[in-house]
Every structure is written in structure tokens, then in C-alpha cells.
Amino acid sequence: MRKERSGFSLLEMLAVVVLLGIIATLVVPRVANSSLTARSNTTQHILSSLNSAIEQYQLDHGSYPSSLKELVPDYLPDGVPACPEVGGQFTINEKTNRAEVIH
């Protein structure tokens, strides 16, 4: 009669830990990089929306706004969006009359 063993051997546990470590070293950098890419893409999308609102303001008023706050609530009903980049803030470049991110 053969005795049934219960649990896992130390070698089996070590193999699982090594495999999980290998998987983690492949996945973690990609997740971190995708987060940065998502923030950058979101920032570019918001800049595009802000520039559209600035151009619409100029068409309606004949001049460019001096700040993004002038676009609220007619052109930005939800207010000036927050910048997804750490420490970033949206503003209007006085020379180009385009939205930009300042850090």
C-alpha cells in the first residue's frame, strides 16, 4: 500500500517562486511604461481640446483669451482640466496663443 503525500515539496515551491519572479521581471516594466504613455496621450488630448476652445473663443470674440479661466463655462463647461503629468499645469502661451503645459 502506497502512502499518499500531502503538500508540496521544497523543490516544487522553489520552481513556482522562480517562475513568478521571471514573469514579474517581464510584466512590471511594461505596466510602468504604459502608465507613462497613457499620461502623455491624455495630456496631448487635453491640449488639443484646449486649443480648439481657444480658437472657438477667438472666432466668437475677435481676440484670444488671456487665460484659460476666460473659457469657463462657455467653452470649458467642466472647468479647466487638471494636467495628468506630475506637477504640470495648463496655461496659454502669450506668443503663440496655444495651450501648453508648464512644470
Walkthrough of the structure:
This protein has 103 residues and is mainly alpha-helical. 50% of the residues lie in helices and 8% in strands. The protein contains one helix and two strands. The protein has one helix at 10-61, and strands at residues 89-92, 99-102. The protein has a two-stranded antiparallel sheet. Strand 1 and strand 2 (99-102) form a beta hairpin. The longest helix is centred in the middle third of the chain and has 52 residues, at 10-61. The protein is rod-shaped, with a radius of gyration of 26 Å. The mean pLDDT is 91.
Key traits:
103 residues, 2 strands, mainly alpha, two-stranded antiparallel ribbon, 1 helix
The overall strand count is 2
Major β-sheet, in short? 2 strands, antiparallel
Q: Extract low-pLDDT stretches.
A: none
Arithmetic mean of pLDDT = 91
* Structural class by SSE content: mainly alpha
Read across the widest sheet, the strand sequence of neighbours is 1-2
Q: How do the helices and strands line up, and which of them pair or pack?
A:
Layout: H1 10-61, E1 89-92, E2 99-102
Antiparallel strand pairs: 1-2
Give a short synopsis of this structure:
The chain is mostly helical and 103 residues long. 50% of the residues lie in helices and 8% in strands. It has one helix at residues 10-61, and strands at 89-92, 99-102.
